[in-house]
Amino acid sequence: MIFVAPQIPLTYTACNLFALWRRSMTITISPHISLQPLLQQDAQVILELVNDSRAQLEKYLYWVDEVIDLNCAQRYILQRIDSGLAHSQWFNVMFNGKVSGVFAIKSVDQQGVAELGYWLSHRVHGHGIISQIVAALPQLPVHSPIKIIEFRCLERNIASISVAKKSGAKHIASLADFAESDGVNQALLVYQAQLKPPSPDPA
Length: 203
Hints:
29% of the residues lie in helices and 31% in strands.
């Protein structure tokens, strides 16, 4: 007997395989928070998030003014996921099953210093999302030799500074007049913290 596979449209099969792959790559942080790989296919949702939170994001993030249409959103993504920086990894932040922002290990240098980057929709502020992701870093399968995590925050970005301090990071350097943001020349503050070792599995 010859078994003939049912004829399933290729596009339907590809979409389902892609969904299964993305689900398999999901990193769970908590029942409400997870990370998924940031891909060029996410350009539309990234554009919608930026447009919805543009007033909040453009105060501290230089690239926001450059993301004005779908092509710009695709360029934003490609410049990051194909940056060529060592051990760079970029993720969608999922909150309650919806893309709500971006989290990144932007690079890891030879000393094991990992620069982190992140932004969120203003609609999900107040849930401690980024702090929970940072706290979970030692357990995450990031496949990079991270010893120290580094935060770079404009001096008036109180929310990002709070995330850094909550992780135990200390202020180690300042770059004066780094950028004009929100109508003011602002210093860039650099914070670093030792990455805590993973908690041992319970016996």
